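Can't paste images in this forum, so I'm doing it all in text. The chain is below; anyone willing to post the predicted structure tokens underneath?
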Amino acid sequence: MRFWDTSALVPLFIAERESGPAARRLREDPEVVVWTLARLELLAALARRGRDEPAATRQLRLVRRHFLDAWERWTEVTAADIVRRHAERIVGTHPLRASDALHIGAALVAAEHEPGTLEFVTFDRRQAAAAEREGFHVLGPE
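Text version of the structure:
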């Protein structure tokens, strides 16, 4: 089981340089844990791609459906209050955006406050550094 940040989820559904590494990480361990707001972040990325590439709208509808089907198989962290409290501490400790801190907070909840027990998949270098300092074993695109 691995916690996935949106930066690693997006390449699973939108063709990017990191799509191959993301697919490899998923094949290694298909048990995915996500923060509840990752759903909105990924849907926003799909919508943005549709606005940027109108010719891809039909394909993106299929991708959206595929993503929503996958989401149903994943474990979703929804404990907003405790995640927010973790994120408040994290932004005071690490140079992160709020959304990145929320993902790390959600991973702490998923790991039951024992970050060494859960791998953290992110393709964002700054978030990776913070997650490592929080005690997670971080998996990036390499």
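The chain has a mean pLDDT of 97. The chain has one domain: 2-139.
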